[in-house]
């Protein structure tokens, strides 16, 4: 039975059956994924001008894969003020950033009002910037800590000026794996519930998957299928204008954390995962090869294997770089454009919702 051919024809299978896709050689998978990608976007590779800001690394959770949160592996706690966040946002906006991406640790010190004030003050200071903020894990944490429903937290975020949600906190949806790597964090059902409600009120979000640690191939595909089902459910909400913009497979960074992984996925395993994502996730428009976890070179190769997006300039990257990624200082606009063009693609600057802003000559 040719599983790949049947999947391409639209037949649906469970995760166990679909894990056989990994048995295909890399070029067969890549060709199939690239055909899907090219039919949607031709040779375009998308990126944006964005700034990442992480207000604190003081966290109540102890996720074993995390190198960012303050711990004995990273004994350098910090907290930012709202004024500092506004100052950084303004400086980046003046340099051309069109998005600010605010994701934080689960702080025991910030109040519920602090977050809402932070968002509203950022939007007041820089009204034209797209504010992407609050992972579903953060929403769950605030809901639990301050006894507010998910709906209340999300609606308050909208009122405070949050435009879209990032996809963090998803990790791997399999609950046994979650218990081992991030016990106490939002569970998979609630992660999906939070995004579903966000979509139902007309908002867009991304979805991530952390891979390359203790999960197996079937866990990865199960994760993708749950996202595909959630996207379908979101799309039948009568008032729906929201949904998942992009799927982002995040490669686990192995330094300065407590998982102690010895066997790291090969380049072929990584590219197969990206190709399978493009083949399986028919209803999620974009597949992002996030250069901050993959490195710029592999992220560019991934554009031949189903991906169509690189993320953006970032400017200051704290989470992946704490785990060993070479992404701390971001990348310049000119560097990203040159890298995309040198790889034989068309560099397209986009906004946060994938509207094309310009083709970069």
UniProtKB/TrEMBL annotation:
For this UniProt record, the keywords arranged alphabetically read as follows:
4Fe-4S, Iron, Iron-sulfur, Metal-binding, S-adenosyl-L-methionine
Binding of S-adenosyl-L-methionine: at which residues?
A: 65, 171
KW Iron-sulfur (keyword) present = yes
CDD domains referenced in this protein's UniProt entry, alphabetically: Radical_SAM
What does the UniProt cofactor note say? Binds 1 [4Fe-4S] cluster. The cluster is coordinated with 3 cysteines and an exchangeable S-adenosyl-L-methionine.
| Domain annotation Radical SAM core: ranges | 45-285
**Which coenzymes or cofactors are required?**
[4Fe-4S] cluster
Record InterPro entries: Aldolase_TIM, CofH/MnqC-like_C, F420, FO_synthase_su2, MqnE, rSAM, rSAM_sf
Which GO terms of the molecular function aspect are on file?
A: 4 iron, 4 sulfur cluster binding; 7,8-didemethyl-8-hydroxy-5-deazariboflavin synthase activity; metal ion binding; transferase activity, transferring alkyl or aryl (other than methyl) groups
Q: Which GO annotations describe the biological process of this protein?
A: menaquinone biosynthetic process
> Where along this sequence does the record place binding of [4Fe-4S] cluster?
59, 63, 66
Name of protein: Gene SCO4494, often clustered with other genes in menaquinone via futalosine pathway
- The species this protein was found in: Helicobacter fennelliae MRY12-0050
